[in-house]
Amino acid sequence: MTVTPMMAQYLELKADYADALLFYRMGDFYEMFFEDAVAAAEALDIALTKRGKHDGADIPMCGVPVHAAEGYLLTLIRKGFRVAVCEQMESPAEAKKRGSKSVVNRDVVRLVTPGTLTEEALLEARRHNYLAAFAQVRDTYALAWVDISTGAFHVMPLTRVRLGAELARLAPSELIVSETQEAELRDTVEEFGIALTGLARSAFDSTGSEKRLCDLFEVETLDSFGAFDRAEIAAMGAVLQYLEITQKGKLPLLRAPQREAETRTVQIDAATRRNLELTQALSGGRAGSLLSVIDKTVTAGGARLLERRLSSPSRILSVLRKRLDAVAWANDNAAQRHKIRDQLRKVPDLDRALSRLSLDRGGPRDLAAIRNGLAQAELLRDDLSEPAVPDLLVNVIHALRGHSELIDHLETALIAEPPLLVRDGGFIAPGVDDDLDEARKLRDEGRGVIAKMQAEFVSNTGISSLKIKHNNVLGYFIETPSTHAEKMLSAPLSETFIHRQTTANQVRFTTVELSEMETRILNAGGRALEIEKRLFETLRNHALKHAADIAQAAGGLSELDLTAALAELATTENWSAPKIDDSRAFAIEGGRHPVVENALQRSSGDPFIANDCDLSAEAGAANIWLLTGPNMAGKSTFLRQNAIIALLAQMGSFVPANSAHIGLISQLFSRVGASDDLARGRSTFMVEMVETAAILNQADDRALVILDEIGRGTATYDGLSIAWATLEHLHDVNRSRALFATHYHEMTALAGKLPGVDNATVTVKEWEGEVIFLHEVKRGAADRSYGVQVAQLAGLPAAVIARARVVLEALEKGEREGGATQKTLIDDLPLFSARPTPQAAPAKSSLLEERLSAIHPDELTPKQALEMLYALKEAAKN
Fold it and tell me: Is 818 among the annotated ligand-binding positions?
């Protein structure tokens, strides 16, 4: 069957993007056909129609409006699709010049993938959107990542086993790997919800990658950026190759690559990040995470910097001290801090505006964002006196100054509130361009221009009844009554006025001037827009020449925002400055869990019970607290809060404690809670053992280890033996500072055998058979777990609780006497008896209760009620 020229064009373009949906531009719509249409209609919940036939069958078709395309793109990307955007490269009028049946030239201008988004509507303003690449060259590995919406570009060497931990830290939207590694890495990558993209091995060629990098940054060698190994160069080159493919040659404005090293940040594995809920709650989403509670930033850039710092705490003492000094300064200068935060609230997202402009996806509002952001930077610089600020903010001051020329240029050229898109026009200020002003005048004041011309014609001819009129056939024309025809057709007027038409009562003329004016009026709107487009391109190029300065200012504003936000957090939540040094100290006084404390304040208003923790150890020795106590008493909260306090301190923040002295930690491990992993065929206990094995195999003497209920997923003696051996290994081999919570009270004996182990317990009080949780941690060991009492609080039926007490008493008695075997206990306690457990007989009601039940208060007068009260009181005495 014959294929129409348009459909032939579609199929040819689609063949190059088989794994993506093709958004095929048709006037004001992006249309999709065949399988793309079926998939998109279902994903977007839009109508599926048909257009024409192919091989005898109807062609499925659906479409979305161009003006609303961003919302549909976001939905498709979130559902795992990639989208190839195909635009019209010429107008239909230009196509017709080649022939009446010529098809408009079209081409794919961009491949939209999760890691290559730049539009404001498609991104979370307060989070990075990373595109990463993992490369292997012989026995070396590297990970490179870029956020094209901000220009950030990083690379780091790493071992193969560290890939999962780094992916958990960065949370990229998309990971590029060699096609040869795609199957091997799929499980690891998809565990984190990351889109996996395979590229040809040639994209990871280190020699070709080095050339791509040098060409991008216009340098002869990469030495000025750092000493990169071949794997790092390959990873960075693969990122560039993918950007060239997806952006169709329009590379974003990337900053020079920054090399990171594992030794500069605290190593936190994926399980620990998940357990501590650093940036995402276990339930999914940001709400309930540590980040959601501590984020008081007021700019998008500051929020992204906070997440980076929280995800990558520093191990560099000098860096941490500068950060803490800056927070202390902002904390001590409350009035100045409030003024700074008020000004920062007016700062737009400079990084993303600059990135959109570099990719030619920006608009007038992005130029205005740069103008407004830099203007606020200048105001903030004036408020910061260099000798009075800490070292960290001195660099910020330097980044905020020197932008007056660009600000003035954009201030002069742009109106105060420009539209989002260039095609909307009207964003260039009056007086900037004479041709633009004239075009706008003609467009907006055409009637006035014609009236003025008419007055001139009346004056020149002396005919007061002369009019300039317009219709769709003649356009603009001059009309006079037929009585003036002879005068108009005679010299000298006939030399100016050209006869066009004679009617019964009127004669119509035109002039060269009127014809030219007509053309100018009719074309004024289009001409004005073309002039504005040209001026926009000039302004865009001018801004991009200052890209490095704008990026520095954006970084300075983010640093200032984060400093002020952490100080605001410290003030409002009563946090204190930690003491950070290179010792093995870990002494927390009055520590609190910020997320739990925040939840209590919002719900019940109850205060959080603060607790101390001291894991300080001499060099080469361990210090471990063995924590016992009942469930629900707060053991897990205590474990987590100390890990969080250490992490906050090493990101450069004040901490939720009365005081904290922390010797730098190199690694943070937390194994608190577990669930099964059915996709990998792992039981809850298997997951627990895998995570524990990772800790014991990696933790060094600078690590902080948090372990909760090791061995609980198996038989009692198996679990006890595993927990026992794990604690000994931590003490003797890893020599880490650690908190080890357990219900195996037998382990408390280790405190007398291992010099680095101390017992601690969460205190409770028992009252009339019920347990009251005090949430206080003190030295010593718990004598029991109060499991039955907790079960009662949970609402188990009274008969079950009563039976459990009987069984527990029998088991404890057998263990004390040492003579009862398990079989004897089972024989004595018919645990599997088919007889239902007898229910306790209801208590007989008292005489007083009977008299009370007979009273009907609504039927009593006040006097009768008082008499009844005296009578009941007398009955109670008897």
Answer: no
792 exposure class (CB count in 10 Å sphere: 0-12, 13-18, 19+): buried
Residue 7 among known ligand-binding residues = no
pTM: 0.84
The pLDDT value recorded for residue 200 is 93
Domain boundaries, given as residue ranges, for the chain:
5-112, 125-260, 316-403+546-573, 434-508, 579-785, 796-841, 847-877
Inter-residue contact 359 to 250 (CB < 8 Å): yes
Q: Is 629 annotated as a binding residue?
A: yes
pLDDT at 129 (0 to 100): 95
How does the average pLDDT of the chain come out, rounded? 88
CATH number for the region 125-260 comes to 3.30.420.110
Q: Which letter does DSSP use for residue 730 in this model?
A: I
470-507 pLDDT, tens digit each: 887 888 999 999 989 888 888 888 889 999 988 888 99
User: Is 697 annotated among the ligand-binding residues?
Assistant: no
633 is in an annotated binding site: yes
Q: What is the pLDDT of residue 769?
A: 60
Instruction: Tell me whether residue 634 is annotated as binding.
Output: yes
753 among annotated binding-site residues: no
Give SS3 for 403.
coil
Q: Mapped to the 3 state alphabet, what secondary structure does 802-859 carry?
A: HHHHHHHHHHHHHHHHCCCCHHHHHHHCCCCCCCCCCCCCCCCCCHHHHHHHCCCHHH
SS3 382: helix
Q: Among 584, 606, 597, 691, which Cα is nearest to 644's?
A: 597
The answer on whether 556 is annotated among ligand-binding residues is no
- Ramachandran bin of 620, using left for φ above 0, alpha for ψ from -120 to 50, beta for the remaining angles: left
List the CATH code of the domain at 316-403+546-573.
1.10.1420.10
Grouping H, G, I as helix, E, B as strand and the rest as coil, residue 332 is: helix
What would the CATH number be for the domain defined by 434-508? 1.10.1420.10
Q: What is the pLDDT of residue 789?
A: 66
Task: Report residues of the chain scoring pLDDT below 70.
Answer: 1-2, 632, 673-683, 715, 766-771, 783-794, 811-812, 814-847, 877-878
